[in-house]
Amino acid sequence: MKLNKLALAMSALIGGMALTGCDLEGTDGADGTNGTDAVAQSITLDQQGRYLSGIFDESAAEIVTFDKETQQTFVVNANSGKVDVLNTQDPTSPTLVESLDIAADMQTAGDVADAGDVGAANSVTVHNGLMAVAIEADEKTDNGWIAFYKIEDLSYLASVQVGALPDMLTFTPDGNQVVAAIEGEPNDDYSVDPEGQVSVIDVTWDGSNLATNLTQVGFTDFNVGNSRNAELPEAKMVIDGYNATVAQSFEPEYITISEDSQTAFVTLQENNAVAVIDLANKTVERIIGLGFKDHSIPGNELDISQKDGVNIKNWPVMGMYMPDTIASMTFNGQTYLLTANEGDDRQDWLDNVTDQASCEASGYYFDASDNCIDAFSAKDYYDNDNVTLVDQEGNPFAATNGGFGEDNELYRLKFSYHTTVAKNGGTEFSKLYAYGGRSFSIYNAETGEQVFDSGSAFETLTAKKYAEDFNNDNAENAGDDRSDNKGPEPEALTVGKINGHTYAFIGLERMGGIMVYDVSNPFSPEFVQYVNNRDLTVNPDDNTDSNNDGIKEYTVDAGDLGPEGFKFVSAEDSPNGKAMLIVGSEVSGSTTFYEINVHSFSAE
């Protein structure tokens, strides 16, 4: 399919708002019940210590978790395929205890014939003296494993083989189950595309003996022609994938569990949806479509060009929330879901698809260089042969037309060709569908209704702090570089309770840093703090491979880059009696410990 017309509604929507006029909270949902705290409080995050792997931009510190009994922190080191164990009895000075070589342990136990068949570690979780680790196969489209360790002596216990590419996993609050997102990503040319699944492992553990029972929860019933296909909320989600069934298109990413351990909520990131899993019956209860964010309305402004500095304004663009991390909380007896709206595309695998007919039949664009394209920008494909940009009356826009901005900003934005075509019903587009919401959102888990979105706050707050250095990349200093492509990319997210208040901590993968909100009332969250130890005067990529081992060392003074995983530790479980946030940053390969200090004051 060739794109013949890109009809963009140019109106007052393009007029935009100045930076200082942005509504930091976006459009709120209906007012909820106000909290009744007798004492108001605020918190601040204060950095205590850092553990540095010394490895730059190789995913040496991703997912982190904490064991309250041993006061150890476990860090997934995807670069080595191991789990680093840190002594964090003193959070100001974390030290490496050892690195668990999971592949070697599996081979020694006879669970695999060759350690070389075992790939990277992707996630780690602990409960009651038991640790579980998600391990992919060396060939990621082969079945992976969940490996179990006894924390007390770090001894290997057993592994359970699951589906292809197990990613995030977590224990249920009662510790009776481990639930894992089986992502099922395709290989690099889409010749193999496993189905996404959710693994539910029943666990019996007495501190010494472990018994497990695996149930794989799949999505084949939702395939076209099957019994549950009509249940899909297609208007609010994305169903794509190259030559893919619905089950192949679904790639479970992250999981949160309800407080009663009965329900798992699983992000289907590329599908802009959440799967709800009944953990008692081990079935898919329903699929929640997250809908789309309208960037043309006040409060939802964004910067869409990497060439114009700070230019946060309204545009005829819809954001596909596509959350990575998901967390949950309870308010007035109701479960609410919090999402970090990163956005994601399938372009890495589509790049190697060279069959034009199949590419176009799957709803993607086939370019003159024999590439299958979804992540599309008009500037890359604007010529008389394939793209004509017209207004609603069909009149072509001149290259300097102010409707696209003084520097043709709208030409630069990366959007999904597949979704934009599908949602506009053809090749004349009134709105573009871009990746990510550049925000965090809160949803009623029962109804799927969005009750809050942070709107343009993340870009606005980082622009106020960094000016034209905002929307930076995470591996080099390049201000405004990510504005045309998902902006700050909120990825990590967790929640924690402190003195009756519930706080959300959201990590910005590209710009770096942590956004803190008081979400005690999910209908009206309040911004608390933005903290970022990144030093933009230091170039993190200005280093050498002094060991000649192919691994670049990291310039530690550049700060933490690419926050990937968060772990909240309550004051009751913390080594120093104060609540703590542990941050794993994949680009800088660092694990950082923040003390959370509470500041109370009269509510009157």
Describe this structure in words.
- The protein is globular.
- β3 and β4 form a beta hairpin.
- Mean pLDDT is 89; it is low at 1-27 and 397-402.
- It is mainly beta and 604 residues long.
- The strands form eleven sheets. The protein has a four-stranded antiparallel β-sheet with strand order 2-37-36-35, with no helix packed on it. A four-stranded antiparallel β-sheet has the order 3-4-5-6. A four-stranded antiparallel β-sheet has the order 7-8-9-10, covered by helices on one side.
- The chain is 7% helix and 37% strand.
Entry keywords:
disordered N terminus; 7% helix; four-stranded antiparallel sheet; 37 strands; globular
Give the topology, please.
Elements: E1 6-7, E2 39-52, E3 64-67, E4 72-77, E5 82-87, E6 95-100, H1 102-108, E7 118-127, E8 130-137, E9 143-150, E10 155-164, E11 166-171, E12 177-182, E13 197-205, E14 210-217, H2 246-249, E15 252-257, E16 263-268, E17 273-278, E18 283-289, E19 292-294, E20 317-320, E21 326-331, E22 334-340, H3 347-350, H4 356-361, E23 365-366, E24 372-373, E25 375-376, E26 389-390, H5 409-412, E27 415-416, H6 417-424, E28 432-435, E29 440-444, E30 450-453, H7 457-466, E31 490-498, E32 501-508, E33 514-518, E34 526-531, E35 563-569, E36 580-585, E37 590-602
Parallel strand pairs: 1-26, 20-28
Antiparallel strand pairs: 2-37, 3-4, 4-5, 5-6, 7-8, 8-9, 9-10, 11-12, 12-13, 13-14, 15-16, 16-17, 17-18, 19-20, 21-22, 22-29, 23-24, 25-27, 29-30, 31-32, 32-33, 33-34, 35-36, 36-37
